[in-house]
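Dear support,

Our group has been running a series of protein-ligand predictions, and this particular one with zinc ion is the one our PI (initials K.S.) wants archived with full inputs and outputs. We had some confusion internally about which version of the output was final, so please treat the block below as the authoritative record. The input we submitted was:
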Amino acid sequence: MIWQSVIGQERVKAQLLVLLKTGRLAHAYLFQGDDGVGKDAMAIQLAAAIHCRKGDFDPCGKCPSCLKLAGLQHPDVHLVFSLPVGKDEGKGDHPLEKLSGPEVDAIREQIRLKGVNPYHRISVPRATVIKVNSIRDIRRESVMSTMGSNRRVVIISRADEMNEQSSNALLKTLEEPATETLFILTSMFPERLLPTIRSRCHSVQFDPLGPAEIAGRLVSDGLANETDARLVAHLAMGSFRRASELLGEDMAEERQQALEFVRLMMGNSFSPLMKRIDELSAQKDRELVVRFLNLIALWFRDTLVHSKGGEILNVDQSESIKRFVDRFPAVNYPDILGRLDGAVSLVRRNGYIPLVLVRLSIELKRSILLTTA
Ligand SMILES: [Zn+2]
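Confirmed final output from the archive:
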């Protein structure tokens, strides 16, 4: 196994390795795909493979070059991300020059964290835009020769956060042919980039990670025990970062509420269900509703798994899962899970939440009862 710091993404790894080994890497790439699937991690790994002194494209992690990269301190590898704009920051200032001491410290700390964990989401207060001064800084450097003999690598993380000015500055840089620099842009919203920038980059699509890949890494990194890892991996919708974030939350209560919702849905009285739907809708946070729907889907996934004699994820709810399967042995699971999936995408696409939830409840109950008729 090669490039182990990157979870999964074997297709992309193979693709990049071939280009690297045959010396056919292009001048600019756009890594696109969902949040937390390893776009930045892959970019950093590719930079390490280019610069490792061992020279076989599998970074050793021990040479001076690898050690510098591990702290994201390599002179020929630049990570560009959104930064706050300093007071009186003028055209051509170094991007950090006009920021306060504590701000610079906070940025350094974020770089350190990203070096330790390439799946870390960089978060700097007041930083919403990739500044034109950050791109100008890269341009200044890209005309100079590299410190070592290898190519300079510039990683622009969440490149869609560039504004018009920085986009235009980058475009000019990409148009200059003679540069030795390899540009890697990462983005989950590639459509927000200038079409002229997109057309100058080779795009590489990243896949959502499988639950087993996510859970395996959480366990091997000592971040979670087997049970918790499998649970959050199934809720993370392919994103390692989302899974890590879910670990920090107490899911027991939410999972219990999901089970309670199924009970209300299957019950004979409509008003407690409506009350619950009103409460859920009042949260005004679509991602919380999505997560709740995913927990319900997870519960049904468990009933399906249990009916086939497999290992469930909601281990603390095994009694209710068993009772459900005994009572409804012939549930049409693809139908149930498909409807939940449909509700998730409606909530994501600004559907009216109370309506989505009411309709979903009616459809699920009908589907389950049909199988007992
Ligand atoms: Zn090395």
